[in-house]
Amino acid sequence: MAKIDESFVKVRNLKKYFQTGTAIPFLKSPPAVKAVENVSFDVFKGETLGVVGESGCGKSTVARLLIQLIKPDAGEIIIDGLAVEKRGGISTRDLRHRMQMVFQDSYATLNPRMPIEESIAFGPISNGKKPSEAMLKSKHVMDQVGLDPNIYLHRYPHELSGGQRQRVNIARALAMGPEVIILDEAVSALDKSVEAQVLNLLTDLKSDLKLTYIFISHDLNVVKYISDKVMVMYLGEVVEYGTVEEVYNTPKHPYTEALLASQPSMDPSRKLDTVPITGDPPNPINPPSGCKFHTRCPKVTDMCRTVNPNLQSTNVGNHLSACHLA
Amino acid sequence: MSANINKPRTYWQSVRSRLRRDPVTLSCAGIIIGIVLLSIFAPLIAPANPYDANMLNRLAPIGSPGYPLGADELGRDMLSRLIYGGRISLIMGLLPVFLALLIGASCGIIAGYVGGRTNMLIMRTMDIFYAFPSVMLAIAISGAIGAGIENGLLSLTLVFIPPITRVSESITVQIKSLDFIDAARATGASNSRIILSHIIVNALGPIFIYCTSLVSVSIIIASGLSFLGLGVSPPEADWGLMLSTLRQSIYVNPWVCALPGVMIFTTSLCFNLMSDGLRSAMDVKM
Amino acid sequence: MFVYFIKRLLYALPIAVGVTVFVFSLVYLGGDPLDAVLPDDATAADVQEIKEIYGFDKPLPVQYITWLGRAITGDFGTSIGTGQPVADEISRAIVNTLILAICSALTGFPFAVFLGTLAGYYHGQRADKIVSGFAITGVSVPHYWLAIVLVIVFSVELNILPSLGMGPGGSEDWTLDWAHAKHLILPVIGGSIISMGIIARSMRAAVAEILNQEFVRALRSKGLSESRIAYHVMKNALPSILGVVGLEIGSLMGGSILIETIFSWPGAGFLLNEAIFRRDLPVLQGTILVLAMFFVILNLIVDISQTFVDKRIIRT
Predict the structure, then answer these.
(1) Alpha-carbon dihedral sign for residues B215, B218, B219, B220
(2) Residue range of the domain that includes A267
(3) Per residue in C59-98, pLDDT tens?
(4) Looking at the predicted complex, does its ipTM rise above 0.90?
(5) Domain count across chain A
(6) Chains contacting A with at least 3 CB pairs below 8 Å?
(7) Which residue from A194, B63, B163, C27 lies 20 to 30 Å from C234 (Cα-Cα)?
(8) Model confidence pLDDT, tens digit, residues A204-228
(9) Is A1 domain-assigned?
(10) Which residues of chain A neighbour B116 with C-beta distances below 8 Å?
């Protein structure tokens, strides 16, 4: 049983490289995309961890590694004190009863040939529930997400709007009875008004069902609204971690500063006083030496070019930053 | 909010209504059903015994009394032989494709879903046979194992397994990359359940349509095998065999000799047109 | 790029080996090959002697290696029927089939490509419907029957084209003049009709899909002339054209047996036909092996040229 001050989900030194071609003996190995490099973080029970970063920073890969859709090359994932896929820990199968995921593309994640009812019931049935029980559960979770089961259960995905489909996806995740839900850009593709409704739904569900969320998004405002803690990623690494107030008000990493500064603002008096990010993101196949951000960092020093800084404490509570100058 | 009070249109209902508005496909289906019925009820419909030879009437022209479509080189009634011929020709066309579909689709879907070494093993083995053009492979296998209907069926089935496997694998790989498969995997379902519930449902449509386009090839190659003497043997009535035996007589009565080919052509054309029609009705891009 | 070429070569190698194993085992599929070579009144001593001559007394893998080794050096054995070295017969026959195939490809395929492109451009309109009608007819017609019909029309009824053989002087003395070309016309039409239909349909689908893509609209709005746009469309369609054309050339070579039988054209298919009926195993094996290797190499060439044309296709 996990101690009260121990995190519910603990990730240590997660690594994933993707091969770009097949290896031929005697020839140089094909280059690898270093998607996730040495990622560690904690998520406490009942809190929402936001994960932000630009496209290609590895946030979706981390999500898929957590739920074991992709197998990590190295590192540990521990949930409620149990290590995933390690002896004495928890199997992937059981993991998925405790952790579920809602994906970004609400249409593509539903089988176009299956009615909603079956899509939701698929998980429970595959895990041994009787079809009648699973159908009952489908009705129940549809109620929880605010869709009338009598109208929607027999519909097909193409007959629902984007917002409705995303509710279905949330219902599908709930049907497995998880304690942790990973939301991978779950609201990014929705219209703003619909997005607000779904975010409210998520907030209500969290308090009603005592859920823990990992909320991945590139939209800083949404993350600020829904998260308790936030983690910033760049090129496969975590560069900053802390509470939302700490990171948004007093960012300690130049990348976070630049991200926040480049947010368009409605306030005409707010002028940019930090240099926004210059240049293009480097190639994850051949990342820069030392600190991976050094090629675009306005505060770069010689040490930054050679030594990769670790994620370390910044003397403010649990606010961590991977910068030599923090 | 969509206020659809009526029961929603399922995918198959929309396919059916699209087909209903397609006269070409419907007529072809009608013609094929007609040919099938003729073949099944041949003993009741054919005017004469297809094996009855009468040398006095050999190569009687079309429209001769008692021989509405003429007589072949042994004096047998062409009309009856054409009707009876449909039996073997249709079986040689349809059965191999059906069997190859069962075997090839299973191999291809498994190879596509599981990936890795299994995929390599299955696909590389199929590649060996895929290196041969179909006609040649059929002839090589038939030439090796000998003539006869069963051998012909075996040979054709083997010929069609590799392309069906290839198409099934490619379709499965495409479906597998779709997000709803990831979502299904994330619920912890076993691979076999995912294949059965999600993959097959989505893959079978395109695979089936591909197979309908193979039927005409099968009929043509099967008749070709009989034409070369590698399929059915005399005195059976089979369109390909009839073409072959009548060929010597084209200088005597050319049009009677061309008749069996008309049947092969018609059947083949109808299957192809139906296949195209099905493809647009099911809105499949391949 | 060169590395990729090597990779594809290495990849084709096991397939080639697999093909040779298959061709080798063909002979055993039809029962004991011994029966084909034995005279009816063979005594036990004769049987043993023949076994030794042909090497049937050795274990299968050894027989395979010996056969393969000889084949690589060009020794395909001796024909049971004619007593001639198989290699000679095959090389003559293959050349004749190549003549037919190349003439079919050169005349028919560009035409089919053009028609298919036309249909793709006028997708849904009259031109498309006409071309598609012809194409689907071509694909559905049993080409050997069409050949017979052509013979009926042009040789029997009209008597303007010959129905047999390669022309005066046969295959030894072949040149491209009208006397010989006359003999080519009907076989070429019969042999290439199905391939032309397939190519036209593929081109139509490819061109229609490309024209639907965003970049074509972008090019038009930039003010590019239609012919320049057509050039871009063709460039994009090139990989799939190469694929289909390659496949169909292979089909021409491999499917030639039916057409050659009808026209008594002394090509590889004709040879194969005779070998099957005479149970002339060395010729059978040799011809199939040579044709099969031809296809493997053809596939490799198509594969590489596709990647050459469109770097995105690089397969792992």
Answers:
(1) positive
(2) 9-321
(3) 778 878 888 888 888 777 777 777 778 888 888 888 888 8
(4) no
(5) 1
(6) B, C
(7) B163
(8) 999 999 999 999 998 888 999 999 9
(9) no
(10) none
